[in-house]
């Protein structure tokens, strides 16, 4: 889970504990312990911060903000279950503490409890806790539910509050791409990398949009940056290979496809692209061997039968080609129906 930066403030003591029946001495101890916890956070001494906030809770077990801050620190130490317990305690002490609902939602996203996380984030907004991260994570929950309209709405809200939020631009770009707004997607990917230069997946995705727009040279440049930033990003090698294929640079394409497969042995698309490149080079024997292998690995992928049928046709094996196209159609590859017309 991506961690949030701490944004804590020093204690305004009496605004938080005015109703607590504490002695002056206890209030002073509470103030010192809370401020000590904040200092330890700034110093990244998280264990000491937990100790300080725990001391606050010993003094006043109803002190909601201390549970909240301790939970945030525990999350920084990847103690998510314990952090959730502290947020629950904070909410039980103060039902209007919107920030605690926000963190509950944040901690629950990205797991089987994402739906519950969305509910907490929505309550945080109802309680008046509005921040860019809350809107972003709400957008993310809707993105996971494949509700692009609502995801887009919340990503827009996040960007309106924080116009340098690179991840929100990136995820909004993905929606725009799916909706066919390629220029809008390209703008968002460019903005994302402008605000966060070390963002290999954004460069990869920006390059993929440029492929759709026919800018293969620009796409190759973006994939090169992605690979420079993340040399193990197999997707970028495959995509750069595809762009090289489109430009007729088959040897360069084959090098990239080979590297993608080296990094990810089961990368079906990279293997299929290798077979296509070999077919383009009139090396039908090698192409067939590759297709036979990946069909064994992926027997329900109709696109593989479609392509093997094309290679068989080039080899003069019309009967075999028709059998493959029929298999492709049976597996849901509708394009195969056009090729099957040649079999009648």
Any overview of this molecule?
The chain has 344 residues and is an all-alpha fold. The protein is built from 20 helices and no strands. It starts with 12 loop residues before the first helix and ends with a helix.
- First-to-last CA distance: 55 Å
Radius of gyration: 28 Å
Oligomeric organization of the protein chains:
single chain
SSE order, one letter for each helix or strand = HHHHHHHHHHHHHHHHHHHH
CATH H level, superfamily name of the domain at 283-344 = Tetratricopeptide repeat domain
Low-confidence stretches: 1-19
CATH topology of the domain at 283-344: Serine Threonine Protein Phosphatase 5, Tetratricopeptide repeat
Strand content: under 5%
DSSP helical segment count: 20
Report on the biggest sheet: none
Q: Could you tell me the number of beta strands?
A: 0
Q: What fraction, in percent, of the residue positions are helical?
A: over 70%
Instruction: Report mean pLDDT, rounded to a whole number.
Output: 92
CATH architecture of the domain at 283-344: Alpha Horseshoe
**Which word captures the global form?**
elongated
Using the coordinates above, name the CATH class of the domain at 283-344.
Mainly Alpha
């Amino acid at each position: 889970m991506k961690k949030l930066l701490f944004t804590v403030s020093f204690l305004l003591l009496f605004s938080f504990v005015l109703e607590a029946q504490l002695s002056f001495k206890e209030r002073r101890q509470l103030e010192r312990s809370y401020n000590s916890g904040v200092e330890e956070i700034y110093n990244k001494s998280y264990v000491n911060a937990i100790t300080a906030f725990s001391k606050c809770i010993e003094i006043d077990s109803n002190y909601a903000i201390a549970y909240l801050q301790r939970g945030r620190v525990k999350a920084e130490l990847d103690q998510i279950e314990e952090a959730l317990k502290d947020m629950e305690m904070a909410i039980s002490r103060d039902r209007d503490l919107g920030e605690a609902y926000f963190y509950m939602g944040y901690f629950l996203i990205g797991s089987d409890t994402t739906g519950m996380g969305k509910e907490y984030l929505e309550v945080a907004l109802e309680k008046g806790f509005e921040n860019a991260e809350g809107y972003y994570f709400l957008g993310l929950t809707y993105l996971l539910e494949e509700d692009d309209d609502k995801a887009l709405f919340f990503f827009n809200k996040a960007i309106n509050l924080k116009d340098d939020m690179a991840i929100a631009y990136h995820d909004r770009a993905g929606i725009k791409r799916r909706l066919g707004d390629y220029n809008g997607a390209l703008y968002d990917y460019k903005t994302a990398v402008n605000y966060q230069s070390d963002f290999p997946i954004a460069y990869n995705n920006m390059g993929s949009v440029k492929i759709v727009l026919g800018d293969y040279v620009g796409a190759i440049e973006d994939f090169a940056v992605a690979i420079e930033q993340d040399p193990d990003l197999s997707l970028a090698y495959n995509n750069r290979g595809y762009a090289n294929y489109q430009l007729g640079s088959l040897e360069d394409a084959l090098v990239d496809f080979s590297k993608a497969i080296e990094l990810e042995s089961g990368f079906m698309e990279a293997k299929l692209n290798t077979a296509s490149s070999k077919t383009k080079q009139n090396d039908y024997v090698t192409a067939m061997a590759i297709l036979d292998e990946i069909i064994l690995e992926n027997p329900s992928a109709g696109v593989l039968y479609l392509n093997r049928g094309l290679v068989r046709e080039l080899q003069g094996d019309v009967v075999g080609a028709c059998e493959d196209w029929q298999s492709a159609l049976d597996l849901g590859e509708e394009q195969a129906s056009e090729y099957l017309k040649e079999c009648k």
